[in-house]
Amino acid sequence: MVIDMWTFSKLSKENMDAISAAEGKLGVTLIAFSDEDIKYAALADDAVKEVKELEKKLGLSLVALETD
Questions:
Q1: pLDDT (tens digit, 9 = 90+) per residue, 21-39?
Q2: Are strands 33-35 and 6-8 parallel, antiparallel or unpaired?
């Protein structure tokens, strides 16, 4: 099941300036998302390894969430 729960964040000028400063300091590009009241799953080390392997295989970033 794929659930669309992420949206691009609407950022104030102050937030944009803070993100831009962090990007410059870290030498990376940051992308801001907002979530819809979700709960992240607590994964054991072996599960984290499995997710990272899948991310590498698929060329995606994955987020583990609790399911109710």
A1: 999 999 999 887 776 677 8
A2: antiparallel
Strand partners, 40: 65
Question: pLDDT by residue (tens digit) across 38-62?
Answer: 788 899 999 999 999 999 999 988 8
Beta strands in the chain (DSSP E): 6-8, 33-35
8 Å CB contact between 6 and 35: yes
In sequence order, the β-bridge partners of residue 8 are 33
- Cβ–Cβ < 8 Å for 61, 68: no
Phi and psi dihedrals of 64, rounded to 5?
-90, 125
Question: At 2, is the pLDDT very low, low, confident or very high (cuts 50, 70, 90)?
Answer: very low
